[in-house]
Fold this protein.
Amino acid sequence: MNAEAPRSISDTWRAATRAAALVAIDPVGLGGASLRAGPGPVRERWLALLRHLLPEGTPIRRAPAGIDDDRLLGGLDLVATLAAGRPIVGRGILAEADGGIVVLAMAERLPGAVAGRLASVLDGRAVRLEREGLAATLETHLGIVALDEGREDDERPPEAVLDRLAFLIDLGDVSFRETGDPGLTPEAVAAARARLAGTSVSDAQLAALCGAAASVAIPSLRAPLLALRAARALAALDARADVSDEDVAEAFRLVLAPRARAFPPAEADVDEGEDGADEPPPPPDDPPPENDEPADETSEEPAQERPLTADELQNLVLEAAKAVLPEDLLAQLRSGLSGLKTSRVRGETTARAKAGVTGRPAGSRPGEPKRGARLDLVSTLRAAAPWQPLRKRSEPTGPGTPRVAVRREDFRVGVRKPTIRRTTIFAVDASGSSALNRLAEAKGAVELLLAQCYVRRDRVALVAFRDRAAELVLEPTRSLARAKRALAGLAGGGATPLARGIDAALACADAVRRKGEDPAIVLLTDGKTNIGRAGTPGREAAREDALAAAREARARGVVGLVVDISRAGQPLAQEIAAAMGARYLALPYADAERLSQAVSAALPPQGG
Amino acid sequence: MRQVYPFSAIVGQDEMKRALEIAAVDQSVGGVLVFGDRGTGKSTAVRALAGLLPAMKAVAGCPYNCDPAKPRGACPSCAVREAQGATFQAVEVPVPVIDLPLGATEDRVVGALDLERAITKGEKAFEPGLLARAHRGFLYIDEVNLLEDHLVDLLLDVAASGENVVEREGLSVRHPARFVLVGSGNPEEGELRPQLLDRFGLSVDVSTPTDIPSRVEIVRRRDAFERDPDAFVAAYADADGRLRQRIATARRRLPETTVTEEALEAAARLCVALGTDGLRGEITLVRAARALAALEGVEDVGTAEIRAVAPLSLRHRLRRNPLDDAGSGVRVERALAEVLPEAIADTDEARTATP
């Protein structure tokens, strides 16, 4: 298509500009947008467009991923406090951005704890400050733009944030030439803002959005609510009071389609929970059970001019949506769990080096701010505060003396707990006849380890390899709930692509490192392999490939453990252990319990 | 002040609502943990709870909301006034429902030196924290599984002793801090520490409803609330009022509600069958059943009430068995099906056999 019209504006960009306009109209209601794109002119153009469309003077604040609570939520403003001689609240970035937008830089690296704080501020529309001797509730109405620079599929902003943002925009494939001026003006946005409260949505439209969201297997109820608000904003933008069916369809494309987890059921397979939804109902037939209660005015005779029923509209919306849903959605979803492209080491040093200085604050101790230790101003002030009257009395006061006398012994520095977490990656041979058994034990071991290690907040991942490929079955997680879901229904059998298994575990280890955490690989193998890295059969080549993969693991310094689960120890398993620089452990009849114990013993937690 | 979404406007989620109602009737049940999917209205429900609680009597001017019916001088403030021979007046105050926001610092949670007085007047004075404000009421922690470990330790300590001891900056203060812990969170963000899990009397698993009519209704009401909060709250004022009345009545009835032998025995058998650790589960089970009976106007707690609250009271106390794929709720149901009918039969036999 680009060949015929080289200057044509890409559809993705056009949709993104619509989203920008809607965010400018209703940043609070829509929550904002996640913008997946590398830093560059395309992303800048989108941000510039948003800035342009927002009313003049709208505050826009940028928050780095590693932001601390002081900056994010606020705290005691020491300078003002000292100047005024009484406690003064210092606003954090969120409260400063009240009425505007907070841009989250590198949101894919946003820690869960920060995401939780953001979520509660977005939900409560206020920052509840209970910090450093201050208690305050600061009204905070804002929208979020999460800049997502993740490249791998598993590098995404936290779900707790994404769930609250209406638009998940991916500009990764848009080149600057495909961008253009959408012809939107701040005046149009301002007019739409004024009109927004007067827009109305019919029951059928509301039901259609909910039904459509359910039929593409979006579990969260925030999604249809956000879509509803988007539909209202679209109507307002178009200077209409009533939301049209086209608005609903566009809201679906903008808000719901990027979250779709399945094709609408008409497309066959998919979808466990929604069987009650009876998706493609013949419209003229009896009004389906699901909407007779909420939308009864639209029942009965199918007159020509009446508005569409919820189901007809929903079908219309879904039809329109199919065009937008990527063809390979299901494949994407399946591989979305894996990050099995060839592994690259990237950015790991920064993540590692920073780990000691960052980390969660864990109180403060007396001491001087040297060598990277940060002065804990509040604690210092607190330490000094009670002595002020005494010091003032003992020292002559005059115009030149400071209001607060701080002495050396008052200095407190912050103590931070380093948060290098261990992620144990299990790479499990799921091939052959005994696979099911081994797989069950590996699953059990993963769950047992999780049950044990959540106090330390360590994580566990699972790679299974069988037949021709390796798959990251369980992303690094410390959630038992998620682990159970991922592990249920894991298949076994087929040939043994050992090299690919090691590669996949390494790719996962890289991803873990990029997050500043510490990976360890536990390889469960019977020391047999017959599929090489290229996915082609051949015992000897497969063996060489496996050893090469193992050496790569060593070169990258990944801690490892090779568990030999064959009946009578296999030489290859030992060779692999040696090549990986990993410990070798023969556990011919490993059960889940022993396996998890062995792993705990062989790979003690970091930093303990 | 922002309007709070009315409790009675929450669609479905009956188990969550029941657990919160039980906690409102009898605070000694020991708190509620609501765990589940995103966007299921967990924190909405907890925040709405505050509107359902009948007012309580407290000592006027006491920052700890001391109970006038209890011996005087329990807290530092009352102790000082007692020593001065001041008069104690009782006033009606709303039951506190205090939010512990993520990012709260320790000094605000336990209380610390009053910074303002220290700076402006050079005085050493204690400023009570969130634990003091939550005394005799509820302490709510959203995203409880993201709470910093050192705060969790602190909460565990205070929740166990009912007293907050502050030793810092030369201050030495102790005051009563008995509160009902209410937590909510999403298990995908991380598990809860077992010690903290154990502190919650009741636990609820919420999931997003999958039936379309409920989903539509939830979105419709949420939308209506956001577009005109005042009108929406007014529309549910009657329903909320009835619920408030029901809870107040249940609280009055609670002391007269008795527990039958069958119910006690059923509770014991159930706990044995499920292998719950310690007696806490059993006590909670009986208390929750009594609160439910009081809510429903039943005079004697029988096995029906035990059955109704068993999943709430026990599902988080089962020993973790990662190899059992069934959820803990299912395991409780299973045990109920096996144990309870049998238990009834047995006790009947036992009674007819022994004269």
Observations:
- Chain B has two domains: 7-55+94-206, 255-353.
- Confidence is low (pLDDT under 50) at residues 343-355 of chain B.
- The longest helix of chain B spans residues 328-353.
- Chain B touches chain A through 63 residues (CB under 8 Å).
